[in-house]
Amino acid sequence: MPGEVRIVLIGDPKVGKSSIVTSMISEQFQEHAASVIPPVTIPPDATRCGSTVHIVDTSSVHAVIEEEIRLADCIVVVYSMTDDASFRRVSSDWLPLIRSVRKSDAHFPPVIVAGNKCDVKTNNPSEADDFRILLEQFEEVETIVKCSAKSIQEEGGGMIEDIFSFAEKAVNFPIAPLCSNQNNGIVFKPECTHALTRIFHLVDLDNDGLLNDHELNEFERKTFKDPLSPEDIRKIKVKVRENIHKGLENDCLTISGFLFLHKLFMERGRVETVWRVLFTFGYGRDVKLKENYLCPELKVESHQCTELSARGYEFFTALFKKFDRDGDGALNRTELENLFFCSPGIPFPNFPENTVTNENGAVTLQGFLAQWSLAGALEYKTVLRYLAYLGYEGDQRELIYVSERRDSTDSRIDPSHRRTFVCYLFGAPNSGQNAFMSNFLGKKPGSPMGSIKSVCNRVRRPESHDDNYLIIQKIESDQTGPVVSSEERMANCDLACFLWDVQDSNSVTHISKFKNCLRDKDVPWVFIGTNSDGGQDANANEFCRRLEIPVRYISSRQSDDDDLFNWIMHELFAFHQPSPARWATVALATAATVVLAGGMFYFYKQRMRRLL
To answer: What does the pLDDT read at residue 611?
Structure first.
């Protein structure tokens, strides 16, 4: 965090700006200081926060002052405590000028107001009220300091050094983004309250809405590296109990108590403590989660695919169980809202209608993991972001597995290295694509699928005990041609499935006009005839036989073919498994390479003998 900090002093002429700088540098007052002091640099080993501090004095030239305000990280507005008019111009002239020059900034730069010449005794009974009004009117003013450049060694003069310490601290740990000063004291801004509330819920490990002693210690360890002693915890609770109603419940800290403690840090001038909490949980200086925290760069080439890793499934399984408060093995609407409270909201359109639910419409663990499997394969950046939102501690990229989509030698996939696969669902008009997808999710017949385009569910191959996830993406009938003829689109497909209505004589002709595309052996095809109560389609059978496409039939009831999707997964694996012919080709190529290398080595030796 410590870096370069540029502190600029502005104010009326003759208020002592240059004297403050010279007194700070030389640690003694100089009666005849220059009218403008050249910029001064203080090395990081001599500053409170470890920043390299540049101090810039200004003249009365307006253009120069505006330029320095534009470049400043923090501004010190100096007035003379012996001149009431100079104090009035702080609010009437100088602070409005700063706002005007920096109006395009997200936040105004922090400002320190310094009253110089406090060694001269003055009597201003309204001073406290004046200061309060100034702080309320200009939230960018971090603090008001009284100092004396002349009495550097005397009481009050020591504040000269503090001015620059406060300024450096204000840059590294600004107050304005977190809270404002109002009549009733410090009030957190909504962004800060939301951030601290999110942090509270993340450290509430047992999800009971309270922080017990163990959770407080884990929060302390994560943020400050040192656990709290039992005596420390007792003192915290005493302080909360004495100052805020309902700050404790069952001897545990409530969200109200948690916010009170952070407000107490602010009131005691320990703003850096609050910032350290925010920084630890991924927030930046705008009190928003940093982009590199939410979505660290993950290199994925066009020929590669992504999916959840084993650790990813472990994380989302644990998350599901944490928020399944009633222990019924499903997340109802309230439990889902609680789970996604620490995020911008549920990231999946049509959720939970587009995944596996129980009879009450609550999301089962199978459906929850399937939805994240779909996101891991199709929108891995969303998964990265939500891992951060939902409190994953560590590098989110560890939970995304990147693999080659296809073998470079024959464009097939290696199923043994993947767990999630994509199936494009083509279909003739009115062939039952929505019913097919609804059946895939185990929904009741007639369940509305609406605008749902992609669904995912767990599928087990008959010859294996391994669970895989199959994503079915619906391709509208009018998009069949553009998709099957696009190498780029089909490269993302592991298996293509075509539905047709057996009772409709024109149904199969919808796909037959693209038969040249069906001969592309980079992608396996399966044909499924729906509404087959009256028997099979001989023409379709012959069409599939000639193209060597597996075919299957399902009745209008569909419940008589429960292993349909296992069959689809079997065909996918069967197509992509290396055939004996392929192994023979590989072996032949390897043998040829060995023979060629041996021959080259023989001729090389013969040539060397002649040369010798």
So the answer is: 40
CA distances from 434 to 427, 441, 446 (A): 10, 11, 9
Mean pLDDT for the chain overall: 87
In the numeric block, the tokens 């560890």 are attached to: 398
**What is the four-CA torsion angle of 81, 82, 86, 87, rounded to 10 degrees?**
40
SS3 (DSSP) at 126: coil
Q: For a pLDDT cut of 90, what percent of the chain falls above it? A: 58
DSSP of 314-327: HHHHHHHHHH-TT-
d(CA 304, CA 403): 6
Helix 365-378 / helix 380-389 crossing angle, nearest 10 deg: 120
* pLDDT at res. 458: 94
Q: Is 326 left (phi over 0), alpha (psi -120 to 50) or beta?
A: alpha
Cβ-based neighbour number of residue 192 at 10 Å: 21
- The CA distance from 413 to 423, in Å, is 13
Return the bridge partners of 179, or none.
188
Q: Band of the pLDDT at 29, cuts 50, 70, 90?
A: confident
Q: CA-to-CA distance for 509 and 579, rounded, in angstroms? A: 31
In 66-123, beta strands by DSSP E = 74-80, 111-116
CA–chain centroid gap for 436, Å, is 35
Task: Compute how many other C-beta atoms are within 10 angstroms of the C-beta atom of residue 609.
Answer: 7
| Strands, sheet with 4-11, edge to edge from the N-terminal-most edge strand | 40-42, 52-56, 4-11, 74-80, 111-116, 141-146
Pairwise CA distance, residues 161 & 504, whole Å? 89
566 contacts 460 by C-beta, under 8 angstroms: yes
Q: What tokens does 471 get?
A: 């994503």
DSSP 8-state secondary structure symbol assigned to residue 471 = E
- Is cis: bond before 349, omega within 30 of 0? no
pLDDT, position 443: 87
Task: Say yes or no to pLDDT of 602 above 70.
Answer: no
Sorted by sequence, the CB contacts under 8 Å of residue 90 that are 6+ apart come out as: 11, 77, 79, 113, 134
Distances (CA, A) of 610 to 598, 599, 605, 606: 19, 17, 9, 7
Residue 247 has pLDDT above 90, yes or no: yes
Q: Which whole number is the average pLDDT over 36-59?
A: 92
Task: Please enumerate in sequence order all residues whose Cβ is within 8 A of that of 332, keeping only pairs 6 or more positions apart, or say none.
Answer: 326, 360, 361, 362
Radius of gyration of the chain (CA): 35
Are 361 and 459 contacting, i.e. CB atoms less than 8 angstroms apart?
Answer: no
What type of residue sits at position 57? D
Averaged over 489-506, what is the pLDDT?
A: 88
Residue 302 to residues 374, 403, 406, 422, 528, Cα–Cα distance (Å): 18, 11, 11, 16, 31
- Determine contact, residues 168/49, Cβ cutoff 8 Å: yes
H helices present in 225-270, as ranges: 230-243, 255-267
Of the candidates 509, 455, 450, 505, the residue with the CA atom closest to the CA atom of residue 477? 509
Whole-structure pTM value: 0.82
